[in-house]
Design brief:
Function (chain B): Component of ribonuclease P, a ribonucleoprotein complex that generates mature tRNA molecules by cleaving their 5'-ends. Also a component of the MRP ribonuclease complex, which cleaves pre-rRNA sequences.
Oligomer: heterodimer
Structural class of chain A: alpha+beta
Helix content of chain A: 10-25%
Order of helices and strands of chain A: EEHEHEEE
Structural class of chain B: alpha+beta
Number of helices of chain A: 2
Number of strands of chain B: 5
Strand order of the largest sheet of chain B: 1-4-5-3-2
Shape of chain B: elongated
Distance between the termini of chain B: 58 Å
CATH superfamily of chain B: Alba-like domain
Radius of gyration of chain B: 20 Å
Largest sheet of chain B: 5 strands, mixed
Protein name (chain B): Ribonuclease P protein subunit p20
GO cellular component, one term (chain B): nucleolar ribonuclease P complex
CATH class of chain A: Alpha Beta
CATH superfamily of chain A: Alba-like domain
Subcellular location (chain B): Cytoplasmic granule; Nucleus, Nucleolus
Helix content of chain B: 10-25%
CATH topology of chain B: Translation Initiation Factor IF3
Shape of chain A: elongated
Number of domains of chain B: 1
GO biological process, one term (chain B): tRNA processing
Number of helices of chain B: 2
Strand content of chain A: 25-35%
Chain lengths: ~180, ~130
């Protein structure tokens, strides 16, 4: 293995439709990767969801990015009330090409093609109601208004991070 | 928070174990330390004895990926008969803070959130 290096990865599932029924045609797909910053993802997603329009968004991730995708969805659900959710799991196939390296390599260098299967997740969030019979459906949770569950406003988007959330600041909105 | 001292005043903390609701034999908790193949074998055994129509696979934080993998592997080993229904949630964890030095002993606690996944692996009705 140490005499090979990865020269190319091809996403075999690229271009395939998302595994959801009745998707709105201009749904936004967020490709969450391991190094994506949560504040960037949430910032974009929240502006999209708060804007007038479809109100559907899909977070998809594979491999080591799945944790981050779930975290993003959980934060977004807490920020914006009344989101319906459908979660789907599947394997994502990636084709990797490995090329031999080292001191004695014939030309052209021999290549190895490997198919890898990564566990992947696709999460659909929607403002409009979805089919409750579908596998992986979660209804909107009625949020208990706590200090951390602060209502989301436009001005918060820039300061939105998962870790630096101000726990102490009391919400001034009086709810119910 | 406490006074911002330089490095020596850094607060050490220990993590309390994650809360686990009462478990039945068909609740599978996946962690990064559980042996994947052993857990997969245990799940297969539970499903093949026929005692359970349904398993619930739970994964917290970094173990979410492993939990997904476990559920998908289970589905692959019973092709066409198992359905998967995942749910996500947030789990509140508590850290115990241990101030070092002993002068200003203020054993406190800090709460933080982590994501979790709960996957229902089940045989549909009527089979």
């Amino acid at each position: 293995m140490e005499n090979f290096r990865r020269v190319q990865t091809v996403d075999e599932d690229d271009g395939q439709p998302l595994p959801f029924k009745n998707l709105h045609p201009d749904v936004v797909k967020m490709r969450v990767k391991e190094g994506s910053k949560i504040r960037n993802l949430i910032g974009y997603a929240a502006t999209h969801m708060l804007s007038e329009g479809t109100g559907q968004i899909v977070f998809s991730a594979y491999g080591r990015g799945v944790t981050k995708a779930v975290t993003c969805v959980e934060i977004l659900k807490r920020k914006i009330d009344g989101l319906h959710q459908v979660t789907k799991l599947q394997y994502k196939t990636l084709q990797e090409v490995w090329e031999q390296k080292g001191p004695n390599v014939q030309h052209p260098a021999p290549c190895l093609t490997v198919q890898k299967k990564y566990p992947s997740i696709n999460i659909l969030l929607s403002k409009e109601p979805l089919d409750p019979q579908e596998e992986g459906y979660q209804p909107p949770q009625s949020m208990v208004p706590t200090e951390t569950a602060k209502r989301f406003s436009e001005s918060d988007i820039e300061h939105c991070t998962s870790k630096k959330r101000k726990n102490k600041s009391k919400t001034e909105e009086s709810e119910g | 928070m406490a006074e911002q001292k330089p490095l020596p005043g850094r607060v050490h903390h220990t993590r309390r174990p994650a809360p686990r609701p009462p478990r039945s034999p068909n609740d599978i908790y996946v962690t990064t330390k559980t042996d994947f193949r052993a857990q997969l074998a245990r799940c297969r055994q539970l499903l093949s004895t026929g005692d359970f129509r349904e398993l619930r696979v739970h994964g917290l934080g970094l173990a979410i990926g492993r939990a997904i993998n476990l559920a998908l592997q289970l589905q692959l080993s019973y092709p066409g008969t198992l359905h998967i229904s995942p749910n996500t949630s947030t789990v509140e964890l508590t850290d115990d803070l241990e101030p070092e030095g002993g002068e200003d002993m203020e054993p406190g606690a800090r709460n933080r959130n982590n994501s979790a996944i709960h996957i229902r692996v089940y045989r549909p009705q009527g089979e």
